Amino acid sequence: MAVNNIKEIEDLVKIISKLPGLGPKSAKRIVLKLINSREELIRPLTNTLAQVYKNVVRCKICGNLKSINSDCVCSSKKYEQICVVENIADMWVIQSSGIYKGHYHILGGTLPSFESKKNGSGLLIESLVNRVKKNQVKEVILATSTSVEGETTSHYVSDCLKETKVKITKLAKGVPVGGEIEFLDDGTLYSAFKNRNSIAND
Ligand SMILES: [Zn+2]
After folding, report:
1. SS3 content of the chain, % helix, strand, coil (to 5)
2. In the chain, how many domains are there?
3. Are residues 88 and 41 in the same domain?
4. Cα-to-centroid distance, 23 and ligand 1 (Å)
5. Cα 134 to middle of ligand 1, angstroms
6. Given a cut of 60, is residue 198 above it in pLDDT?
7. Parent domain of 15
8. d(CA 84, ligand 1 centre) in Å
9. pLDDT (tens digit, 9 = 90+) per residue, 107-162?
10. Residues with beta carbon < 5 A to ion ligand 1?
């Protein structure tokens, strides 16, 4: 599909190709659809994107997305369980399965398996410890991936939580989480949650 060397269109195709699951071919198809629907798509999309850019930020306490105009879910009433995940995509998968309805803590990645872990490499770990203390949380469920980095991270997080005496559990072994969590069916996720193992302070 020729794009007639219009710089604006080429730039847009380039940006859209960076989205997950889209290559240059599908990006061009999307751009064409946009151009053919200026009022129905381009205008509302432009406005919505600007709003998201301006108003949606990552909460510095729990790592979730929040609107700058309202309090984050983590500051709402008391809660007894926190499920720790690596990223927002993992949280969305667990949420949409309906298996777990409690609060989440999004670390923002994993620790490298080989480097010094002294400062937690920018992950939201200190704020997790503070949340557990402040809310007198009864259980922290670690739902990090089964990769080396995921395991390193879950060890480190449970070490940091030791002083709080909170019960720490981990999703059942043999269940791929993290990178693969979005491909899990609800049944597998359900059994991973149901058969979670206690790893500390039981
Ligand atoms: Zn928050």
Report:
1. 50, 15, 40
2. 2
3. no
4. 34
5. 13
6. yes
7. 7-57
8. 13
9. 998 887 665 555 566 899 999 999 999 988 999 999 988 888 888 899 999 999 99
10. 59, 61-62, 72, 74
